[in-house]
Structures are given as C-alpha cells and as structure tokens.
Amino acid sequence: MYHVPVTAAYHQSVWAKIGRTINPLVHRHAPFLKTPLSAVQRWWL
Fold it and tell me: What is the DSSP letter of 25?
C-alpha cells in the first residue's frame, strides 16, 4: 500500500510555483513541451 510522504504538501506547492513560472513560457516559446511536462508532473505528484 502506498503512503503519501510527509512532504507531499510541500512538493505540491513547489510544483505549483514552478508551474506558474514555467507554463506561460512553455506556451509562448515551446508548446511541444507541454505534454512531456504535464506527464512528469502527474508522475511526480
């Protein structure tokens, strides 16, 4: 059975901060990276 790490909330807030910073840049300059980035985020969370 999988247990969520104690630091899960911290990691989610860090990912949210990274996403708010990087997503607009990806949409503007490299839209082809959107799918791999979202896949990595889903895997990480």
Answer: H
CA distances from 43 to 15, 28, 32, 38 (A): 12, 24, 18, 9
Q: Which domain holds residue 13?
A: 8-44
Instruction: Give the predicted TM-score (pTM) of the model.
Output: 0.47
Residue 3: inside a domain: no
User: How would you write the pLDDT of the chain (45 residues) with one tens digit per residue?
Assistant: 667 778 778 878 888 898 888 888 888 888 787 787 778 777 765
